[in-house]
Design goal:
alpha/beta, 6-stranded mixed β-sheet
Length: 220
């Protein structure tokens, strides 16, 4: 495995906490992050936003989900003024950066995956990924506004449908992730998100989080 460059180490020594420095060092080696990619991960508080300092390990698959997702590489400045299809197109145009933000293990599968019912109704999943470490499909639904109970019900249907039609015999259960701009904690608490091991909702933003913003999200 190749060692890191001096430029990598110059970035790492600025990370004060030893456990976080070790985390970034390990991930940079494993994922072969460039200097630019390592800098981006450190500046976006990648470690703090991850559900755990280490990769998913024998526990809840939700450990691969971040809060929030930082999409500062997109051309948008605010959460309003664009359509969901614009957000989707922008993410696919910067797919390499989006995969870096999603985290290790994600591989892109499809865009606007069509689901057809017996009666002829058609639904479309915005983005489909396969997580080769968890060995499961991850469905992503993009929202340009606040999370609603309808969004949650829709994703639940997508996951159940996908499980029946496309999950293979060696695949683990399909996960559904809704990306939205805001979450009402009451909606989350009293919905199927509360107990489900398969459904998740996370917010996203178009700027790097400040320390105070991050602290508010981690310790609401």
């Amino acid at each position: 495995m190749p060692e890191l460059s001096w430029s990598h180490y110059r970035l790492l020594i600025r990370v004060r906490q030893p456990d976080k420095r070790m985390y970034y060092w390990t991930e940079a080696l494993k994922e072969q992050w460039s200097v630019r990619e390592l800098a981006r991960q450190i500046h976006s508080w990648y470690c703090e936003r991850a559900a755990a300092l280490t990769a998913w390990e024998g526990g809840h698959p939700g450990a691969i989900i971040k809060e929030p997702y930082v999409l500062e590489f997109l051309p948008f400045k605010t959460s309003g003024g664009h359509l969901e299809k614009d957000l989707e197109s922008a993410l696919l145009e910067r797919l390499q950066e989006f995969l870096l933000e999603l985290g290790k293990g994600f591989a892109f599968v499809a865009r606007q995956k069509r689901l057809s019912t017996v009666s002829g109704k058609r639904f479309y999943i915005d983005l489909v990924f396969y997580h080769y470490l968890l060995k499961c499909f991850v469905l992503v639904d993009l929202k340009t506004g606040e999370l609603t109970h309808r969004d949650i019900g829709q994703m639940d249907m997508y996951v159940r449908f996908f499980e029946e039609k496309w999950r293979g015999p060696t695949d683990n259960p399909t996960l559904g992730l809704i990306l939205c701009t805001e979450k009402d904690h009451t909606v989350v608490k009293y919905s199927m998100l509360k107990e489900s091991r398969n459904l998740f909702a996370s917010t996203y933003q178009f700027h790097l989080p400040t320390e105070s913003e991050l602290s508010a999200l981690i310790h609401p």
